[in-house]
Amino acid sequence: MGPGVHLYGATHPMNAAERRRGLESGSPISVEHDVWIGGRAVICPGVTIGAGAVIGAGSVVTRSIPAGVFAAGNPCRVIRTLETNTEEE
Fold first, then answer.
1. Does residue 12 have an active-site annotation?
2. What is the helix (H) or strand (E) element at residue 18, kind and residue range?
3. Among residues 4, 6, 8, 12, which one is catalytic?
4. Cis check: omega of the bond before 75, within 30 degrees of 0
5. How many CB atoms are located within 10 Å of the residue 5 CB?
6. Cα(first)–Cα(last) distance of the chain, in Å?
7. Predicted TM-score of the model (pTM)
């Protein structure tokens, strides 16, 4: 992960009356193998970032990102598929 990446697992109701009651919950974030997350990216609750994906700096990831892609933006979206590296280290 690059510098200043934020992972937010906490979430709250969209309904104001429910928020006033203090209701809050959490949704897991999954970051699979060989992922790179660029600096200052924000990862929202319930998101999965697939294996080998690259998230561009400053992105706001509000939905899951599939494996093997470059995704960026606000909101984050898939820009292109990445080449697969079949070499093992």
1. yes
2. helix 16-20
3. 12
4. yes
5. 16
6. 20
7. 0.88
What DSSP element (H or E) covers 17? helix 16-20
In 1-89, beta strands by DSSP E: 6-7, 10-11, 25-26, 30-31, 36-37, 42-43, 48-49, 54-55, 60-61, 69-73, 76-81
Q: What is the pLDDT along the chain (89 residues), one digit of tens a residue?
A: 999 999 999 998 999 999 899 889 999 999 999 999 999 999 999 999 999 999 999 999 999 999 999 999 999 999 999 997 666 55
Q: Alpha carbon 5 to chain centroid distance?
A: 10
Q: Which residues contact 69 (CB under 8 A, 6 or more apart)?
A: 50, 53, 54, 78, 79, 80, 81, 82
In the numeric block, the tokens 């093997």 are attached to 68
Q: 48: buried, middle or exposed (CB in 10 Å: 19+, 13-18, 0-12)?
A: middle
10 Å Cβ neighbour count for 47? 21
